[in-house]
Amino acid sequence: MNNTNLGVALVTGASTGIGYATAKALQKAGFRVFGTSRRAVAQKSDGITMLTCDVTDDASVAKLVEDVLAAAGRIDLLINNAGMGLLGGAEESSIAQAQALFDVNVFGVFRVTNAVLPAMRRQGKGRIINLSSVQGFIPAPYFALYSSTKHAIEGYSESLDHELRPFGIRVSLVEPAYTRTSFEDNLAKPDQLLEIYDSARAGMTVVVGKAMEKGDAPEVVAEVVLTAATDPAPKRRYAAGKMARQVSFLRRFVPAFAFDKSLRKQLGLPV
């Protein structure tokens, strides 16, 4: 175990997947780590203190931050990882379903960040890392609503970083591609299915399943989060994994028509 004291870290959505791998990596590196889950779980034996929090509930978020500050006295690092996915045609989801998705993936980030910022400002330092996705900067057919939440987090994070620099606080994005987690199994289904999208939706489900099998391990993303958390000159964005780096490069330098053609081919859509 590394005895270096790097401060206090709070990781949302830390019971499984990227969140859990991140919490472990931070704890091993020398952070005192608090993780959250929507449902109560036992404190893990690896030294991560787990707390219950619903990021869609103001009171739950306020209590979370109060409990962490009561126990540790400060919060040096916030990892906004909690989120959910949705696969289907954009028009297959009701406004209510879209709002529920945004409440977790976007407003949940806003809630936790706003609750933590007063403590970070008092300290005169802090680091916030928001888990985005390559779908935060590329088109994402049949993930339009999920992609929209990640695009929102990208704009929010870049803007917030400029606002918070005078207080010694920096904000960065970590952008994974496909990662071998339970994300695929937990994808929400549209609440107003349309027969016209059945074939394309089924095809996309197969594409995602195959891609997940070849995706990066959560630990790959966790190591990038750790890099972003400890980088003395933090960057706006950190691509997590080989595919994410490739997609980021292609999006920046390949002409739009060529990128779109390649994307449709990769997803099995008519070119």
UniProtKB/TrEMBL annotation:
A Pfam family per the record: adh_short
SMART domains: PKS_KR
Keywords associated with the record: Oxidoreductase
InterPro entries per the UniProt record, alphabetical: KR_dom (IPR057326), NAD(P)-bd_dom_sf (IPR036291), SDR_fam (IPR002347), SDR_oxidoreductase (IPR051911)
Ketoreductase domain mapped to chain residues: 7-180
Gene3D superfamilies: NAD(P)-binding Rossmann-like Domain (3.40.50.720)
CDD domains: 17beta-HSD-like_SDR_c
GO MF annotation list: oxidoreductase activity
Tree of life domain: Bacteria
Keyword Coiled coil: no
UniProt similarity note: Belongs to the short-chain dehydrogenases/reductases (SDR) family.
Protein name as annotated: Oxidoreductase
Species this protein is from: Neorhizobium lilium
